[in-house]
Amino acid sequence: MNQRQYPIGTPGEAWGAEEKQQWLAAQQVKRSYFDDVVSQINQLHEQFDVEQYGALEYPSNTFPLFIVKTRHWDNSKPNVLVTGGVHGYETSGVHGALAFIKEHAEHYSQWFNIMVAPCISPWGYETINRWNPFAIDPNRSFKENSPAGESAAIMDYLQRHELTFLMHIDLHETTDTDNSEFRPALAARDGTFNENWNIPDGFYTVGNSEKPTQDFQQAIIDSVRKVTHIAPPDNDGKIIGAPIEQEGVIHYAGKQLGLCMGLTDAPYVSTTEVYPDSDNASPEQCIAAQVAAVKGALEFLRTV
Question: Mind listing the pLDDT tens digit for each residue in 50-69?
C-alpha cells in the first residue's frame, strides 16, 4: 500500500535544513516527560541507585537522562540492561521499563545486577515522535560518532564505565502511525519512495541476526503470550517485511543498522514490539507485555 505525498519537501529530493526546520516547527508538546517519567524516577531513590548520565539541551527544554540501578552491585553477578523510549512515541516501552523497575527489579537483583534506562528520547516522548528535533532516528544512530545525542549519551556512559552485559532487552512498539506518519516522513526526508508495510496485530520480537538466540526469544514469546496475543505473519510469511525466524520472531542486524539492540556486546539481545492499536490489547496490557518480556528473558537466563 503506497502512502500519499508527505506535506513537507519535494518528492524525490532529500530534505535540507529548510525542510527539517519546517518539520520541527510543526511538532507540538503533547505530554510531559517530567510529569510522567521523571516524577516516577524520583520516587525510586530509596530503593535503587538513580544516576543522571547526561542531558539533552534542546531549544524547547533541557532534558536530564536517567539510569536506575539495583543496589549492591556485585561483580560476581551478570549485568543486564533494559532500555525504553529509544523511540519516544512508543509509550509502553517507557512505562513498561518503569513498571518492571518498581514491581520486579529488586526480586531479580538476587541473581543479576540490573540497569534500566527508561526513556532514552525524552523530547520524542513529549512530542510523540520517532525522531529527535534534528529529524534523526536515535534507533539508527547507535554507532561511532553518533549524530543523535540520545544515542551518544548512553553509549558514552557505558563506555566510561567499561560495563559488559549478559543481556540487553530494548522495549518498543509498532503502531498504526508507523504507516500514517513515520514511514512517509522517512521517505520524504530521504527523497525516496515509500511503500507501507503490514502492521502486525500482536506482540513480536526482533532478534539480532549477528547472534541469534532461538531459545531466548522463545522464552520471551512464551512469557508474553500469558498477557497478550503473539503477532501472526502476513500472507508472505513476514512481519514488517522481514521473514519469520520462529513464531513471533524476526531478525535484524543490530550493530550494522545502528540499532539500540547493538549497543552492547551482550550475547542475549532482543527488541520487543507490542501493538497498542490492536482491538484486542489495552494500554495496560501493552505495559504488562513489556514487563512479561523482561521477566521471561531473566527467567531464561537463570537456567543457562
Answer: 999 999 999 999 999 999 99
In the block, residue with C-alpha cell 490489547: 281
Q: Average of pLDDT values for 165-187?
A: 96
d(CA 149, CA 153): 6
Work out the number of other CB atoms within 10 angstroms of the CB of residue 216. 23
Joined grid coordinates for residue 94: 517507557
258 φψ region: left (φ > 0), alpha (ψ -120 to 50), beta (else):
left
Residues 6+ apart with CB under 8 A from 239: 200, 204, 231, 233, 248, 250
Task: Report how far apart, in Å, the C-alpha atoms of 179 and of each of 2, 162, 176 are.
Answer: 9, 39, 6
- Tell me, yes or no, if the pTM score tops 0.85: yes
List the beta bridge partners of residue 272. Answer: 171, 205
Give the residue among 62, 84, 31, 88 at the shortest CA–CA distance from 261.
Answer: 84
Q: Dig out the grid coordinates for 260 from the structure.
A: 539500540
Please, which residues have CB within 8 angstroms of residue 192's CB and are 6 or more apart in sequence? 186
Share of the chain above pLDDT 70, in %: 99
**Cα–Cα nearest to 49, from 63, 70, 20, 64:** 70
Question: Tell me, which fold does domain 17-301 have in CATH?
Answer: Aminopeptidase (3.40.630)
Say how far apart CA 243 and CA 235 lie, in whole Å: 11
pLDDT tens-digit readout, 152-165: 999 999 999 999 99
Between CA 53 and CA 78 the distance in angstroms is 21
Phi, psi of 183 (to 5 degrees): -70, -40
- Assess whether pLDDT exceeds 50 at residue 1: no
